[in-house]
Write a structure and sequence with these properties.
Elements (H helix, E strand, L loop, with lengths): L26 E11 L7 E12 L2 E7 L5 E10 L2 E7 L2 E3 L5 E3 L5 E5 L10 E9 L5 E11 L4
Parallel strand pairs: 1-10
Antiparallel strand pairs: 1-2, 2-7, 2-8, 3-6, 3-9, 4-5, 4-8, 9-10
């Protein structure tokens, strides 16, 4: 994982283990366990996940992007009348006391138009778009591991 400094109202960092102390009104974001599941043969739709933790001011995840897919959407899963339903959402909140865990069976990333050339075990850039409480938008780039189904 690499550390990325952003020029904006917030100071974001992607680190593997710990999050530095934030200044008053700023946030430090930790990204870990980012992954994308390789689609089954003949398909170009995949899921993905990660864990976002924030120290300091809360942030909102409003989007994601990667070169290996045409589109990346934020989705939630819920049980309604005994049926699991997936819904696209525009944003997911992250606060110091409420980390955001994106994973299969819950809130997650959905990737459409995924390249058939990706290989299990490689890593790809995943660009996250975040906003602060004033609506200031910043991007953060992290690496996502390509995993096999069920890994």
């Amino acid at each position: 994982m690499r550390i990325v400094s952003l020029v904006a109202a917030l100071s974001f960092a992607a680190v593997a283990a710990c999050s530095p102390t934030s200044e008053e009104g700023e946030a430090s974001v930790t990204v870990s366990e980012a992954y994308i599941v390789k689609p089954t043969p003949g398909r170009d739709v995949a899921g993905g996940g990660l864990t976002l933790m924030v120290t300091g001011a809360p942030v909102t995840l409003v989007g994601a992007d990667t070169d290996i897919a045409d589109t990346v959407e934020l989705h939630t899963m819920s049980m309604e009348d005994g049926v699991m339903r997936m819904r696209k959402v525009e944003q997911l909140d992250v606060a110091e006391d409420a980390p955001l865990v994106l994973e299969s069976g819950g809130a997650h990333l959905m990737l459409f138009g995924v390249s058939p050339d990706i290989e299990i075990g490689e890593t790809v850039d995943l660009i996250l778009t975040l906003t602060d409480s004033q609506g200031t938008e910043s991007t953060l780039t992290t690496e996502a591991e390509i995993r096999g189904l069920g890994d």
